Amino acid sequence: MRIGIVCYPTVGGSGVVATEIGHALAARGHEAHLISYDRPSRLRRGTPGLRFHQVAVSAYPLFRFPPYDLALATRMLEVREEARVDLFHVHYAIPHAVSAFLARSMCGGCLKFVTTLHGTDITVVGSDRAYLRPTRFALEQSDAITAVSRYLADETHLVFGVKQPVEVVHNFVDTDRFRPNGKPRWHQRDGGERILVHVSNFRPVKRIADVVRAFATIQRRIPARLWLVGDGPDREHAMAVAGDLGCQHCVEYLGVVDHLEELLPQADLFLSASETESFGLSMLEAMSCGVPCVSTAVGGVAEVLGPVGRLTPFADPEAMARAALELLEDPALFEAQAAAARARAVERFGTERIVAQYLQIYERVLQ
Ligand code: GMT
After folding, report:
1. How far apart are CA 252 and CA 255, in angstroms?
2. Per-residue pLDDT for 81 more than 80?
């Protein structure tokens, strides 16, 4: 098959999932064409069968907001003609599904598209009055709709009232790349310092300050260090909170890390304090490295963690700290959790299993 994949290029999960689908398709002998305004951060160079097509948006002075959705629709048609793409798979509904509909209308119905919903395209941005109607319309025009969790599929029906089925296809992880590195645990290391990690786009919805608050409590009880990975608007606020709580010397901001698979296995525990999280891809990547997660019980996180790790109430950093300490003070419990995290990632969220579900959907739509 020749599949066009439209996504955001940023470090956010939807772009990561889209790019990894591209890699997985190429590895299985298909042709994948990634379309975005920049090179996606996870795109590995020189992959046979996988090409990147940039969308150029001209900045005419009259345009306060250059119309990216129009430029994208045009690029989709060009890629379809150049590469004889069979089907488009658009990730994140806004505006990608609308552009796909426009591209299809411009060529008299020549093109089919599958829309994958990732989270805030439904729960935050999509339900904004300014975008709700075009998003619902574009979803209804999609040849198939998928959501990355059961929670998100249910929200889509609730918020948008779309009639067609929203199929659940969970996110996936390359369990060969994201794997434990066999490092000694803290109780075998000098000083016994635990390493906690948080990876995100540091948006308000991630509540990074709560991660820091939970960490401050943990670090008062046991030797610990917090790695903050990623970037976004709340980064400085998080560091300021660390300063206020007197734990800034133990909080390290690592920025955007290109090879997360090398970093995550070095951590002991992943903390997430999100207000909403349709899936939580970085938690799955951590689990695959044998790193258990402590997260707020929101959205689709329970579908990812299952019985492994700990879920705590939203906006309760003290409860998060207690849950983390329970795991970090008991080496036997911790080892069992680390092994269970890895096993769950391998058994339920491996690339092979999930990409097969997308391939089935593509085949069905193309029939
Ligand atoms: O909204 C975001 O935070 C970014 C968004 C994205 O497009 O990267 O993340 C969403 O999609 C990820 C990949 O499917 C999920 O793992 C995240 O849980 C989801 N974020 C939220 O629901 C907040």
Report:
1. 9
2. yes
Confidence bin at 197 (pLDDT 50/70/90): very high
Residue 177 is assigned to a structural domain of this protein: no
CB 237 within 8 A of CB 228: no
179: in domain: no
Residues 139 and 231 in one domain: no
* CATH number, position 298: 3.40.50.2000
Q: Give the range of the structural domain holding residue 205, as residue numbers without chain letter.
A: 186-348
* Residue 126 shares a structural domain with residue 223: no
Radius of gyration in angstroms for the set of CA atoms belonging to the chain, rounded to a whole number: 21
Q: Where are the alpha helices (DSSP H) in the chain?
A: 13-27, 68-83, 96-106, 120-123, 129-141, 150-160, 208-221, 235-244, 260-263, 281-288, 301-305, 317-328, 331-348, 351-366
Q: Is 12 near ligand 1, meaning CB less than 6 Å away?
A: yes
198's tokens: 């948080």
Tally the domains of the chain. Answer: 2
CA-124 nearest atom, ligand 1 = 1
Atom of ligand 1 nearest to the CA of 148: 14
pLDDT-derived band at 258 (thresholds 50, 70, 90) equals confident
Residues 163 and 108 placed together within one structural domain of the fold: yes
- Assess if residue 223 is contained within a domain: yes
Find the range with the poorest average confidence among 56-60, 93-97, 247-251, 345-349. Answer: 56-60
In terms of domains, do 31 and 98 share one? yes
Q: Is the CB of 119 under 6 A from ligand 1?
A: yes
Q: Helices 96-106 & 129-141, crossing angle to 10 degrees?
A: 50
Nearest CA to ligand 1 atom 21: 277
Q: pTM of whole model > 0.70?
A: yes
Using one digit for the tens of pLDDT, what is the confidence trace for 145-183? Answer: 999 999 999 999 998 899 899 999 999 999 999 999 988
